[in-house]
Amino acid sequence: MSEQDATDALPESEAEWRERLSPDAYRILRESGTEPRYSSDLLDVKGDGEFRCAGCGQTLFTSDEKFDSGTGWPSFWAPADEDAVATRADRGLLSTRTEVLCSRCEGHLGHVFDDGPKPTGKRYCINGDGLTFEADE
């Protein structure tokens, strides 16, 4: 998929989402999937830039908030803007977690936990397949 501009119209059907997204991004964003631990190329990204939603292009996180959580997924202590992500209860079989979604396209990104570093104490544990990275120039 090419980089989407956050002002582009969103797909109106799941068929259009399938055309826009890679199979892995579709599974994550549209079917609430999870990628295997340590499989994301974004784990090793150390440069300055923005992590954007692979579905709609909205900036979700920046490299300034990224940290190595040791969990195997890209992790951030805060979103780039509080309005960039939404959350909701994810009631699984064993526990209730807080799901993180793109506020624009409502794509599933991952979960947020209360075991992150200061200053927020949050760990946004995000699937790399639901993101793209745009390096600062």
Topology:
Layout: H1 14-20, H2 23-31, E1 49-53, E2 59-62, E3 66-67, E4 75-76, E5 85-91, E6 96-102, E7 108-113, E8 123-126, E9 131-135
Antiparallel strand pairs: 1-2, 1-9, 3-4, 4-8, 5-6, 6-7, 7-8
Provide a short characterization of the protein structure.
The chain is mainly β and 137 residues long. It has two helices and nine strands.
3D structure, described in words:
It is a single chain. Strands 3-4-8-7-6-5 form a six-stranded antiparallel beta sheet. It has two helices and nine strands, in the order ααβββββββββ. The protein starts with 13 loop residues before the first helix and ends with a strand. By secondary structure, the protein is mainly β.
Task: From the structure above, extract its key features.
single chain; 137 residues; mainly beta; Metal Binding Protein, Guanine Nucleotide Exchange Factor, Chain A; 6-stranded antiparallel sheet; 3-stranded antiparallel sheet; 2 helices; 9 strands; 31% strand; globular
